[in-house]
Amino acid sequence: MLFSEEIIAWYHRHKRDLPWRHTSDPYVIWLSEIILQQTRVEQGLPYFQRFIEMFPNVRLLAEADEGTVLRLWEGLGYYSRARNMHQTAKMVMENFEGVFPSRFDQLITLKGIGEYTAAAISSFSANEAKAVVDGNVFRVLARYFGDGTPINSTKGKKIFGQLANELLDSKNPAIHNQALMEFGALQCRPKNPCCEICPLFLGCVARKENKVPLLPVKRKGGKSKNRFFYYFIIREGDKLALRKRGPKDIWENMYEFPMIEHTEALSLDQLKKLPIFVDWFGEKATLTVLSKPPKHLLSHQQIFATFIQVEDIAPNDNKKDLWNYVFTKDLDTLAKPKLIFTFIRDYIICTTNTL
Predict the structure, then answer these.
(1) Are residues 278 and 132 in the same domain?
(2) Which of 214, 235, 251 is the last residue of a domain?
(3) How many C-beta atoms lie closer than 10 Å to residue 280's C-beta?
(4) How many of the other CB atoms lie within 10 Å of CB of 141?
(5) Which of 5, 6, 33, 261 is catalytic?
(6) Would you call 33 a catalytic residue per the annotation?
(7) 190 and 50 both lie in a single domain
(8) Is 219 a member of any domain?
């Protein structure tokens, strides 16, 4: 049996029942693809359902304000995906008269849609003969052919892209692509793959050469940058101080607590001597560390965040211009980074409910 036939036969027996597999609507498929980038299906499914419920068509998504889109996205991370998604919806309204395109050459012109996503949407919605190569497909191909070329290198992308196109069932590209992706997700998993019951067992080079745990190979990226964030929890009755992040940095236009960033870890005494701290809170402010969550990993960045309650603050009317005071009950209406969302959920809301 041919490679594609084996994969498709396996897929019909083992595929998961996922909502975006019951439609050929390119808008719905696009939503699922964007949400599932860098995200496991189990985590992304509730977000997909929320977005479809709130924005059942591209027009409603395009007309929404960015804050609403970011708030729905809250907790997924990689917030540029949400911003690009919002911009893409507007582009569809402007350039395609509100009809979400299904052709690869049109999809590739939209913001946030690269070759992989364009191939997936065009294949799944219009059965266009485009090979879809995601992380799961890279893994299956690298192991089956025993190829140790780094999958995140230019050479690797070219090699595996060519392999994927050569193996593609041009008569049934949609089902072939979904089958290969699902096979990588469920059968040829990153860890503990089910090699003993694999339909590709006999032809798999990595299995024959005992290289399954070693493949695929991924070239290490550059050194991560460490950033130390000191968040200040400032209460005013039932309100908390928040500020909106500026442009050209992570979490653009999202809300966080007043924060001082430093290039290295500081003690509370060192923190209190910083001129900006003295300007904000005075020299006699008292600090209580509330939470030190584990480091927050981003692309090429590691965020070390410390949440500190501040009391005995010196009077300073200028602080009203630096941040806003928001009722605790209204915190959920604002878009926040996952780091802030998790702290509010685990500490602010929890402690408020037990008072």
Answers:
(1) no
(2) 214
(3) 21
(4) 24
(5) 33
(6) yes
(7) yes
(8) no
